[in-house]
Amino acid sequence: QKEVEQNSGPLSVPEGAIASLNCTYSDRGSQSFFWYRQYSGKSPELIMSIYSNGDKEDGRFTAQLNKASQYVSLLIRDSQPSDSATYLCAVNDDYKLSFGAGTTVTVRA
Amino acid sequence: GAVVSQHPSWVICKSGTSVKIECRSLDFQATTMFWYRQFPKQSLMLMATSNEGSKATYEQGVEKDKFLINHASLTLSTLTVTSAHPEDSSFYICSARTTGTSGGGTDTQYFGPGTRLTVL
Asked: What pLDDT is attached to residue B106?
């Protein structure tokens, strides 16, 4: 599987702040990128997908992709305690997904 | 859309018994499903790729005779853990792959809720 690296956590942010999550990948030919959220004891839930360079916004979430730098990020604006979870970056590897190790985010009330 | 179910959600069994886990795509057809295993505080580990109507493809180090996979229809894949032992206790998660707009995106995987297996 191809390498996917995420910034090491845990990441602690105060409620209402912006949480910034970063991910780099090894295969320059990768075309599809995903962010999954996983609550403790639960399975991953897809929150964002991005395929083109630039920004993609969905509610409080913004994904950013820079294929030249092989970098994808996720911003969570106005962080809420319910955003406390582990966030997994995933990159399409043929028909499979290569996952990063995850970044655990804790939002302090 | 893009709902994936798993059954059972948890199971406790005795060592040496076999356990079957079902994964269903409820509102789309999935020619490809995936089985993952996750140990506490670790990331997902892909075990195998399940293709409808053909044999599963197992990742390196995964025993195909121990983890039997059947993908008999476009909406159902099953994982059978044969002769389970305590070291097989884990969180087993399936995902189903969509390749069109019916699942909400291009070549996207949606995960089932997972099955927590405890082998005594």
From this structure: 65
